[in-house]
Amino acid sequence: MHYRSKTCATWIALAAGSLGLHRLYLHGWRDLLAWLHPLPTLAGLVGVLRMRELGQDDRLAWVLLPLLGVMVCVGLISAIVYGLTPDERWAARRNPGQPARATGWGPVLGVMLALLLAGIVLMSTIAFAFQKLFEWQGGSLPT
Description:
By secondary structure, the protein is mainly alpha-helical. It has seven helices and no strands.
């Protein structure tokens, strides 16, 4: 069994968590949840491409685009959880029988960046979804 680094897991989740690569790193190729990550991420990317091609009036893009935001947030939240896990607990869970290694600043910097990006992505996704919902309902405020 190979050593699973908390720093590496944090940065993989930060960079490619929406595709489930962090789960493949931690759990191996047989992890079902890792294989469920790419489908909604790719559907969200299709929404981005449709919106670029067809404009903001494409209703399918309205539905697909928030999937990308949600999946990016899932990866970023995983990075935050991994980075904030105490070294002893990480070693006991991910590297049983091996002594805990001090991780240093790597996971901390990853968590800081993940928090920044998660705030931006989550607020953008919520704003986009509610804007499109408001436009779909008629676009006028009650007076």
